[in-house]
Amino acid sequence: MPWQSVTLPATADEAERLSDALMDVGALSVSIEDAAAGTDYEAPIFGEPGMPVDALWRDNFVVALFEQNADVHHILSLAAEHAVFNLPSYVIGLVAEQDWVRLTQSEFDPIQISTRLWIIPSWHDAPDSKAINLKLDPGLAFGTGSHPTTRLCLQWLDQNIQGHESVLDYGCGSGILAIASIKFGASSATGVDIDPQAVITALDNATNNDVTIAFYTTENDHSSPADIVIANILTNPLLALAPLLAERCKSHGRIVLSGILASQADKVIAVYSSWFDIAVWQIDEGWVCLAGEKIL
Ligand SMILES: C[S@@+](CC[C@H](N)C(=O)[O-])C[C@H]1O[C@@H](n2cnc3c(N)ncnc32)[C@H](O)[C@@H]1O
Predict the structure, then answer these.
(1) Fewer CB within 10 Å, N- or C-terminus of the chain?
(2) CA-based nearest residue to 176, from 200, 148, 142
(3) Which residues, other chains included, contact 66 with Cβ-Cβ below 8 Å and sequence gap of 6+?
(4) Is the pLDDT of residue 104 over 60?
(5) What are the residue boundaries of the structural domains of the chain, listed by start?
(6) Domain 3-104 is of which CATH architecture?
(7) Is the CB of 191 under 6 A from ligand 1?
(8) What angle do CA 215, 217, 218 make, to 5 degrees?
(9) 150: helix, coil or strand?
């Protein structure tokens, strides 16, 4: 079935709020594209012909997918009303499912994350058979390793897993972080996601990588406290989830938080400091990864 795609320009600061509002009003998926990333993504032209578009509005594009029959104009007005923002000009397109799959596949080549870790799409051969090759089919879930927020988490896991830790990947998407944890030597990993489709995709990816991982939806979450809790979700859900993630982290365990814009890092650190000695670990393309140890 074809879908409707809606593309809206946003500054880096607005992109997350816009993205949250679109998910709240029923978008099937929302992605934030970096307008300066120079990918194959063809940014639409906004504004009246001949009129300059404010440079700030060109930082990011928020791309949301809706069902074919959804009344997108009405839904966007609802989102704007609900989250109190002025609706920018937007472009609606029709995306055939086949085209979407092909588009995703053509944009997703093997990615080298570190000297020893490669992410290999299921339709590609591994360029280095001696590396740790994580086979991945993103399906409809987020998490291909191409986004800086995922990359930062993978690099943290690569540098910090000693072996024998338990890992909880909260907001697991494709399951990439949980699977990588096991490949780096963790003794067990669990994943949780709010999206049942992500859990299905994550289970398939774990099977394809010959690792055993329990994945749960948030509605049916049986995860236990872990030595390492890693969560790559946007700032607002991370703030709301702080007490839960703190409870799921063992005493003196470690927490890794990603999906945070640099301008929002202080807010997240302030909230999580109630439980963790936490600080910025690394920044990549304006996205911050925080890491800390539970002090209680
Ligand atoms: C940015 S993706 C990260 C996926 C993957 N862990 C990675 O690092 O690439 C965020 C994921 O968090 C999930 N998510 C969003 N809000 C959530 C919540 N409140 N509880 C659990 N999962 C949530 C989304 O469905 C999505 O799969």
Answers:
(1) N
(2) 142
(3) 3, 4, 5, 6, 26, 27, 28, 72, 75
(4) no
(5) 3-104, 109-294
(6) 2-Layer Sandwich (3.30)
(7) no
(8) 125
(9) helix
Domain 109-294: homologous superfamily in CATH: Vaccinia Virus protein VP39 (3.40.50.150)
Q: Which atom of ligand 1 is nearest to the CA of 141?
A: 27
Between 47 and 16, the more confident residue is 16
Strand ranges of the sheet holding 60-66, from the earlier edge strand across to the other edge:
29-34, 60-66, 3-10, 91-95
Residues in Cβ contact with 39 at an 8 Å cutoff, skipping those fewer than 6 apart: 33, 107
163 contact partners, CB below 8 Å, separation of at least 6: 185, 186, 187
Helical segments of the chain, H only: 12-24, 72-83, 97-106, 148-160, 176-183, 196-208, 235-247, 265-272
Residues 73, 8: contact at Cβ < 8 Å?
no
| φ, ψ at 244 (rounded to 5°) | -65, -45
Task: Tell me which of 72-86, 175-189, 247-261 is least confident.
Answer: 72-86
**Ligand 1 site, residue 198, Cβ cutoff 6 A:** yes
Which of 195, 218, 248, 260 is the best mutation target for the ligand 1 pocket, counting ligand atoms within 8 Å of the beta carbon and taking the most? Answer: 195
Does residue 193 have a known ligand-binding role? yes
> What share of the chain in percent tops pLDDT 90?
48
226's tokens: 């872990």
The pLDDT, as a whole number, for residue 143 is 66
Tell whether ligand 1 has an atom less than 6 A from the beta carbon of residue 14: no
Q: Judge whether residue 281 has pLDDT over 80.
A: yes
Q: What are 231's two structure tokens?
A: 């969560």
Does residue 129 carry a pLDDT above 60?
A: yes
